[in-house]
Amino acid sequence: MALCPEKLLGYANQNPAALIRAGLTNPIFDKPKLGRLSGKNTLLSLESLLQLQPDLIVDCGNVSNTHLSLAHRLQQLTGINTLLIDGNLQDSAAQLQQLGQVLGLETRANILAEKANNILNNANHYAATHSSKSFYFARSPNGQQTGLSGSIHTQAIEVLGLKNVAQSQHFYGLAQVSMEQIIQWDPDVIITQEPLFAQHIQHHPVWRSLRAIKTNQLLVFSNQPFGWLDTPPGINRLLGLQYLQNRLLNISPQQVELDVQQFFEHFYQSQLSLPQVRQLLAI
Amino acid sequence: MTLTHIKYPLLICVCLGSLLLAFSSGQYPLSLQQQGMLLLHFFSQHSNDINDSAANVFWHLRLPRILAAIMIGAGLAAAGAAYQGMFRNPLVSPDILGVSAGAGLGAVLGIYLDQSMLMIQLLAFGSGMLMVLLVCAIARLSQQRDPMLSLVLVGIALAALCGAGISLIKLLADPYSQLPSITFWLMGGLSGISLSDLQATMPLILIGLLPLFLLRWRMNLLSLPDDEAKTLGINVRQTRLIFIASATLLTAAAVSLAGIVGWLGLVVPHIARLMAGADFRQLLPTSMLTGAALLLFTDTLSRTLVDIELPLGILTACIGAPFFIFLLIRGQGRR
Questions:
Q1: What are the chain B neighbours of A171 within 8 Å (beta carbons)?
Q2: How many domains does chain A have?
Q3: Engineering a disulfide at B70: which of A129, B292, B327, B330 sits with its beta carbon 3.0 to 4.6 angstroms away?
């Protein structure tokens, strides 16, 4: 979507109207929702896929034996080349360049890769030079679902050197945790991109008694047009990562707004007006 | 002296044991002595000091959760015992008439439509009740001569439809945010229960328990063939309706709060029958005490066994299924 939206046939999960409302104003983003294509849990039938006649199927995310074998099978069944790219956030630039090479779009890919690298280098520099705060990433309306340390859900925050309080030796990925455990962890910052959670804690005495909330360290991120930190784990996380760094450094609001505008311009080829930016930031 | 004679003292000891264990375990270190002080403080002078995290943990987290476990455990066990008695079948569990499947569909729809927690609970409760109403209404239309058999069959059919509905919503849900929430909900758990949740649910559970408790002697008559029960002067249809309504209310209230907690309503009446025999007058209170103690113990495990919360449904199945098999083998040996 970032590299060459004009070549994209449709969306897997996104609702196009919602994307356009949320700031992807460029008309090239107006395309149908086709449904996702993943193993047995597939909404797009292989016959409809063949009817669309794509030249290439790209899947960016986890590369595991399961995903590899699924990609192989898809390629065998449809005869369409299938490309599986490792979705690790730190490798964003390499992903863009790799796809650029395959699609013959090296120039734009290199420009985007440089932008991605800038954001990541800044973040790595921040991580190396600042003392690390601890954070809790609240998902779901009651905030008790979280991404465990090292999972793709909190990668964007951890790149900045922040320490995820939810560390587990035996589990990986998403988990449900108890409120007692959150009090015990006592994080410096609580981060969320779930608007219902931000409302929920207004009336919740236990959440309100946490140090992070009392010291005004609840950072709410937008989930439009995509989640800024998670959901889905893609290039969209660079926007959240940059915004988080700006918030931690207390950068002036004007600069923050400008950064958001530029990100949309570079990665989504869409011009956001200031009111639109402010609406995204005011969540 | 047999198990039957000492059952109440034994059960009360087990309940107290689970209660002490539940109060004294948790991720936040809080001694029983501290909790005693907090209680004393509450009764001597009412002060709501929001800044004290120990008080917060006790009043807003541990106490509501323990009360919820007791209530839901007792409620599901009572509903299970009632259903097993009515259907004269030991394989029946409280979700036989589609309450859990209906509640599950309601909750999953709530999550899919991005509703608040309260709304999700309401949807779960409402659709659980609605499902049983539908089952009863459709069963009345059926041509089956045995009314209980048609209830079960319609219940199975509608539960399958709800299952299909849940699968459809899972397919359509956002795989990154909604799908995990749906999965967690369907596995059950008592995490995040607040005092206000309890205030809303406790009356429903009490309303469900009251008729079961007061009319428990009639259940013995219901387990006779319908004709015999009628000759003994009870209105079989009406009594059965009261029992179904009460057991459904209990299950729907429990499921709306805790998600799907399997096995408890099936296994606990069996354990209780070992202690109390088949007489429903003894079986109901024994089931309730056993259910409360078992769910309290399981929930304590779920929040303390590892550093994250283990879903309750996993633990109740892990404890319930082997125990059930043990009872089956033992029962066969006796025969």
A1: 306-308
A2: 1
A3: B292
Q: What is the ipTM of this complex?
A: 0.77
Q: Tell me the CATH class for B54-334.
A: mainly alpha
Instruction: Please indicate, yes or no, if residue A233 is contained in any of the structural domains.
Output: yes
The whole-angstrom separation of Cα B82 and Cα B181 is: 32
Mutate which: A174, A180, A199, vs B, most B CBs within 10 A:
A180
* Residue B16: Cβ within 10 Å count: 11
pLDDT exceeds 50 at position B21: yes
Which domain does A153 fall in, by range?
131-281
> Is B309 within 8 Å of A140 when comparing Cβ atoms?
no
Judge whether residue B48 has pLDDT over 60: no
Answer whether A184 sits within 8 Å of B176, measured CB to CB. no
Contacts of residue B171 in chain A, CB cutoff 8 Å?
A: 41, 43
Task: Please name every residue paired with A85 in a beta bridge, in sequence order, or none if there are none.
Answer: A60
Question: Which pair of tokens denotes residue A186?
Answer: 């006592």
For chain B, first and last CA: distance in Å?
22
Packing angle of the helix pair B195-214, B117-141 (nearest 10 deg): 30
Any domain includes A155: yes
Q: Does residue A106 lie within any of the structural domains?
A: no
Q: What band does B285 get if pLDDT is binned at 50, 70 and 90?
A: very high
CA distance B232 to B223: 12
| Beta bridge mates, A192 | A138, A220
Q: CB distance from B184 to chain A under 8 Å?
A: yes
From CA A151, how far away is CA A221, in angstroms rounded? 18
Query: In angstroms, what CA-CA distances link A110 with A84, A266, B41, B172?
Result: 20, 12, 67, 36
Distance, in angstroms, between B3 CA and closest chain A CA? 38
B192 contact A CB<8A: yes
Q: How far apart are CA B66 and CA A209, in angstroms?
A: 21
Instruction: Judge whether A95 lies within some domain.
Output: no
Nearest CA-CA distance, residue B168 and chain A, Å: 11
Token pair, residue A132, equals: 């690390």
Distance from CA of A144 to the nearest CA of B (A): 7
A-to-B residue pairs, Cβ atoms closer than 8 angstroms: 103
- Cβ contact A145–B181 (<8 Å): yes
The tens digit of pLDDT for each residue in A40-80 reads 666 788 888 888 889 998 888 778 888 888 888 888 888 89
3-class secondary structure, A274 = helix
pLDDT digits (tens, 9 = 90+) for B136-151: 999 988 877 788 888 9
Q: Which distant-in-sequence residues (6+ apart) come within 8 Å of A119 by Cβ?
A: A238, A241, A242
A-chain CB neighbours of B306 within 8 Å are 168, 170-171
CB contact under 8 A, B306 and A199: no
Name the one residue in this structure whose structure tokens are 């290439």.
A56
Which CATH number do you get for residue A257? 3.40.50.1980
Domain boundaries, chain B: 54-334
SS3 state of residue A218: strand
Nearest to B61 among A168, A179, A232 (CB): A179
The closest CB to that of B53, out of A167, A209, A230, belongs to: A209
Q: Are residues A227 and B184, on separate chains, in Cβ contact within 8 Å?
A: no
